[in-house]
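User: Before I run my own analysis I want an independent prediction to cross-check against. Here's the chain; please return only the structure tokens and, at the end, one sentence I can use as a sanity check.
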Amino acid sequence: MNRKDVRFFPVFLGATAGVLLEVIATLVDEIVVGNLFDDAAFTAINLIEPYTLFEVFMAYLVTVAGAALIVRAHGAGDREKMSQLFSQTLIACGACGVALTLVYVLFTPQLVRFVADDPAVYDKAYAYFTAIRFYPLVDMFDTFMFAYVLYRGGYARFYIAISARIGLNVVLSYVLGSRFGLMGIGLASILSLMVALAIKLTFLFSKKHGIRFRWHFNLREALEIAKIGFPESALSLFVVLMELAINGFTLKTYGVAGAAAVAVAINIFEIVFYLSEGISEYEVVAVNDSIGKNSSQSMNRAIRTTLRAALIEGAVLLGIVLLGSSVLPEAFDIDDEATAELASTLLMILSPTTIFICLTRVTAIFYQYTRRIARTLALFGTAVALFPIVFSRLLGGIAPEGIAAGIALGPATAIALMYGYVRLIKKETLFDYALMRLD
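Assistant: Structure tokens:
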């Protein structure tokens, strides 16, 4: 890795397959709920999702940049720095996991009422959150191992872990869900994640990939890592804001049925963002390896490969969403025929945005790890939160189809405005290698 460029296909295929399995694992709850319970229960767990996404925000904040900087230190051949970063990240995971769980436990009724203040869904949302509020205790560590194992090339171990998580979650969700309701569904997610984490931890047993843990924590360095990682972690926070605003608006304007249809569209929107992570994971590894080697030529080749891949994947996902629009609502087992038909229409409207999502993601990641933090935040914030919220409210007042159109306009408008800003105001190319600082 110190001498050669990072190869695209091993990282891309490994990361994409891993992320796809991760998406399936996160969707198990909703699919099982759709089959075991009614549409109100499906809506309830989607209303709780902002809290799980906020937990993802915290996990990415303290882990993803740390894992990326471990790759940078590896590119530079600095084993001591790798050990410091690894140890510091584990300590941060434990502290943040405990703190967030305490907040969720102490304020459970208030938090549930904030997102599900409707008699039709409150009790169901409360039951699910009763279990899922303990998720941060496990997921903080799992998120770090997710990034570390992928970045270091442990794809086989990763596939085994995620496959075990999916299989166990399906079985436990049906068993515990049938016995304990939505609380059992949440408990199944935690137990299956614990098994997946245990499998990923075995990656550290080898001499090549294992890193010695020691009690090391430098607050200034931890804050610097958090600063670098904040934009990518903020993506989850922006999704939280988008879901809160659009779900609340839809529930109030079109009722539970409309909220269920829009929830399908929002889930697919998020899945596309997750799948685009396959390319951005390659980009993170290649960019940080190039910085570690102090090679602008290596960086140039990596970004060209990333851009081509983003365009191709965006087009492929467009076709998948478009062709699958009539089938995807059935995957969530939407019971009402009119609701399922509306969900299909929303997905067809949403499909063209897949290309812009992929372009937004890879552009933002490049800016993030070359210290253009403001640009990264602007891209993610406008593409995922600000523009989808504003446009969906403006167009959603006309018809529910306008909500999907508003969500779709978000990434397209964001990347177009960023391109105009960079070209016309900053007089740069979108990926300006000449001004890139390698440190």
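Sanity check: The longest helix spans residues 219-275.
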